[in-house]
Amino acid sequence: MIARAALALSLLASPVAALPASAETAIFAGGCFWCVESDMDQVPGVTETISGYSGGTLKNPTYQNHEGHREVLKVEFDPGKISYPDLVTIFLRTIDPTDGGGQFCDRGHAYTTAIYAIGDAQLATAQKAKADAEAQLGQKLETEVAPAGEFTTAEDYHQNYYKVNPARYKYYRFACGRNDRVKQVWGADAFKGIPSH
């Protein structure tokens, strides 16, 4: 009994490890969600990514029918390791934000870019990041910044596509010209914060 009491007291006296900060969520539309997922999964501090659809009014969108929606990625992250402002800055440098008609070989509204902000703080941060990027590039960005709406998870076969189908994914990304165009737009800042690039 005395030994147990002493153990309990020693545990109370020991420094308690800081608990990790609660996860936060960001939602980005950057063209094909396979590619956005592949990039965001490499960002230190990102804990989970889920491909899906958002931005439209159609109920229960699917890959075959998501008219009005964009392909998006829901990003769960640890704000103790990566801040939302830094995450937005990294995201913008993985896309061509000057293209209002889609991304790379994927054309149409579903593949246009957006930052869907969750709450006023994210909205203000995203607007500032967009303005900073416009100043850096010297031109207007076509990336929409808007409050987040409903998010619908995409079909299972879209989740982690780049891991499940690596050869097909790599061919698609190369053939679509994604990396080359991002480097053309951003120069040395292209894919900044993405280790594999």
Radius of gyration: 20 Å
Spatial strand order of the main sheet: 7-6-1-3-2-8
**What is the CATH homologous superfamily assignment?**
Peptide methionine sulphoxide reductase MsrA
What number is the mean pLDDT?
Answer: 91
Identify low-pLDDT runs. Answer: 1-20
For the record, the CATH class is: Alpha Beta
What is the beta-strand fraction? 15-25%
Main sheet makeup: 6 strands, mixed
- The structural class is alpha+beta
What series of H and E elements makes up the topology?
HEHEEHEEEHEEHHH
How many extended strands? 8
Straight-line distance between termini: 59 Å
- CATH topology category name: Peptide Methionine Sulfoxide Reductase, Chain A
What is the helical fraction, as a range of percent? 25-40%
Helical stretch tally = 7
User: From the structure provided, what is the oligomeric state, counting identical versus distinct chains?
Assistant: single chain
- State the CATH architecture: 2-Layer Sandwich
Number of domains: 1
**Shape label:** globular
